Amino acid sequence: VNFYNELDKFSDKTALITENSLAIDYKNLLAVADQIAGHVEDRCLVFVVCQNSFESIAGYVGFQRAGVAIALVHSNIDDDFFLALLETYRPKYVYMPKEGQIDGIAFESVFSFENYVLLKSLKTVEYVLHRDLNLLLTTSGSTGSPKLVRQSYKNVDSQVVALAEYLEITSDNRPITTMPMSFTYGLSIINSHFFKGASLILTDASLVDPRFWSMLKENEATTFGGVPFIYEILKKLRFGRMKLPSLKYITQAGGKLNNKLMVEFAQICEEKSIDFYVMYGQTEATARISYLPCEYAQTKVGSVGIPIPGGKMWLEDSEGNQIDSAGVAGELVYQGDNVTLGYAEDYLDLAKGDENNGLLRTGDIAKYDDDGFFTIVGRAKRFLKMYGNRINLDEIEQLVTEQGYDCACSGEDNELVIYLTKSKEIENIKSYISTKMKIHPSGVDVKYIKKVPRSESGKILYSELA
């Protein structure tokens, strides 16, 4: 059962608070949502161009309740990439802001709500949608690629149940948006809080915009989530000095937070009586795989914790054998109902069923300690051989970041390349890493880069490094 069809029970509770401080209850949200989706004729594919707004959320909720397949993309998507996705997947409808444009494909407007419009394709292609297919999302690794992750109704339902359990979400929660809803982490916050009848505070304002903090304080937000980049901003904004009495807990996911920042925020949160949850996941697991219970935030620094409720984690060596010893690195494997159906590369793939059967090889290398807590040590593909020794590019990035510099690392065997945003520190960093990692300086090339390229979720875009 899709839980979105059961939201009517929260009728009079506040569902959304908009940037104009308009409070919209579930009854009104569902009335608008059902009206929008009522113009979609049958089960088909709908593309939603997302913003953190009433119109965007209402469309998403309506399409969920109507049982159509939904592809989510962010409103700042590159025009050419958007067009390529539309040509690859041939959706019957697109729901998007009115100011957006679609060139080269014929659509007609069938309904509009506020500043959003529902467009119907004039050249439809008939293809099969698998009955379990609920969502299509881009992955952090598929920027510019038409490959999308296929998520099922069971995936989404199992994920919200797990999140609500370990985060103890109730209808009294008030999360404020800090990420796009098209990003799996941002969407998981929306889904799990609607599941419990909570109130979402909607804003597209960034954390450096005073409007964000005004909305948080005026509407008494109880929680927000952030990728590592958001925590770097919070540090610069001196989060520790802010008076935010309504905040009950904050979460971190979407990439590894460096240990120094993790310690700092764990201490700040303890002082402020805010629970701090570090989490780990992938789009391929409908967002969340593991979490570090907040009481371990200072004693298990760097750890991604334990599996979410209903999930299992273990490590395998290069031969596929399960690792039974603490402290030994291997590929992290996850099993759970939230493991997605697989990928799609065009509309013909939307007929496919479950190709993963609840099992996900994450591609992350991890260890576990004597208490069964896991720590990610790097990506399987993010290792180089330097003169016979295996080095971890993610570890080197962490070392440089802990020195206070933004960087990105790439390269090939015997040639490590560090992209640094501080030109005056090139020689210092080269010397530091050569010494620390015991690599001959001739194998380390430190290059100046004006800005580290990042995705909308803050992850480094390695493909864009020169």
TrEMBL record:
Pfam families in alphabetical order: AMP-binding (PF00501)
PANTHER family cross-referenced by the UniProt entry: LONG-CHAIN-FATTY-ACID--COA LIGASE (PTHR43767), SURFACTIN SYNTHASE SUBUNIT 1 (PTHR43767:SF10)
PROSITE patterns noted in UniProt: AMP_BINDING
Entry-linked SUPFAM superfamilies: Acetyl-CoA synthetase-like
Span of domain AMP-dependent synthetase/ligase: 7-343
Protein name: AMP-dependent synthetase/ligase domain-containing protein
